[in-house]
């Protein structure tokens, strides 16, 4: 059996500002942006660039479809790190993000499993930027 998580949904306030942040600031690729008239919404999928050719998990940028969903914008992890962005070059990406105004709430730390820092996205969701140590099963490498 072959399975993978193809997408996860992230509740956003506005499609345009979310695309600008995830693609313009973090450097993700816009995989799809399709209007769905029957539901009056857009199917917007962004994905981190992966030069190795692997198809990683996409993020569906989803506007709230009810008033009950609104409070979860920026709180999908309940105050914990919610997303984990693995990189092949922590220092390059950290410097790039800092230069683009990304807010790091926890400074870089070297651990046995790799180098990591926590940043918040434009809504306040917390993310790990992490370069796993060589040999770690989740390490990212250019192939």
CATH superfamily: 2,3-Dihydroxybiphenyl 1,2-Dioxygenase, domain 1
Count the beta strands: 8
Report the major sheet: 4 strands, mixed
Report the average pLDDT across residues: 93
- Under the CATH scheme, which architecture would be assigned? Roll
- The total number of structural domains is 1
Oligomer: single chain
Q: Roughly how many Å apart are the termini?
A: 26 Å
Portion of residues within helices: 10-25%
Q: How many H/I helices? A: 2
Radius of gyration: 16 Å
CATH topology: 2,3-Dihydroxybiphenyl 1,2-Dioxygenase, domain 1
Structural class: mainly beta
* Element string (H = helix, E = strand): EHEEEEHEEE
What shape does the CA trace take? globular
Portion of residues in beta strands equals: 35-45%
CATH class equals Alpha Beta
Uncertain spans: none
Spatial order of strands in the largest sheet: 1-4-3-2
Descriptive keywords:
4-stranded mixed sheet, globular, mainly beta, 8 strands, 2 helices, 143 residues
């Amino acid at each position: 059996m072959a399975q993978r998580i193809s997408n996860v949904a992230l509740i956003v306030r506005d499609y345009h500002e979310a695309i600008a942040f995830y693609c313009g600031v973090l450097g993700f690729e816009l995989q799809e942006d399709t209007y769905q008239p029957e539901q009056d919404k857009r199917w917007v999928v962004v994905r981190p660039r992966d030069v190795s050719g692997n198809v990683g998990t996409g993020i569906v940028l989803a506007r709230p479809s009810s008033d009950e969903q609104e409070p979860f914008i920026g709180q999908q992890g309940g105050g914990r790190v919610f997303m984990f962005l693995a990189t092949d070059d922590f220092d390059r990406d950290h410097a790039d993000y800092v230069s683009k105004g990304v807010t790091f709430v926890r400074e870089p730390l070297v651990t046995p499993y790799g180098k990591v820092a926590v940043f918040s996205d434009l809504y306040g969701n917390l993310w790990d930027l992490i370069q796993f140590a060589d040999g770690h099963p989740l390490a990212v490498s250019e192939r």
